[in-house]
Amino acid sequence: MARRPRANARQTRREERGTGRRGGGREWDRYKMTQKLVSIGDDYYVENQAGQQMFKVDGKALRVRDTLKMEDLQTGDTYKIQEKIARVRDTMTIQKNGSRAASVHKALITPLRDRFTVSIEGRPEIMVVGNIVNHEYRMMHNRQRVAEVSKKWFRVRDSYGIEVSPEMDAGLVIACTVAIDMMAHPTR
Length: 188
Description:
twelve-stranded antiparallel barrel, globular, 2 helices, Porin
């Protein structure tokens, strides 16, 4: 049994990332975030892999109830990310263009690590699995990855990437990622 050289195996994985098994032929979108998104208090831009500003996060909107506003600079869609008060478990809701679009829930009992679920209107629940605190996790639907968050894609300190399936609303996934970040790091 012959082993494939390492370089060929890497190239094969790169090719698989772009087409076929993950996107039905269409590439996944990749965005760059910073870990200090919530603490800066100024406007912040989420960039795509080409360095273009795609989303604007209004850090000035941060209030006592942990509310952020985000705008898709390409489509004009607006997102409002807000903490729900008086819940048994931590929950943040996300509105898109004024209508409820998703809820991010933190599991009640998490002995070893944080666990989250995402409920998107009109879709089955999405499980968030991996290391939330270190920004290395996946969003899974029926055991299929629909989004991934990782620090491995960027060499810049305090930055991490979000890779989104073509079937998903990229703005909604980014808003969910921001909500998870706010719940996992409440002191930032």
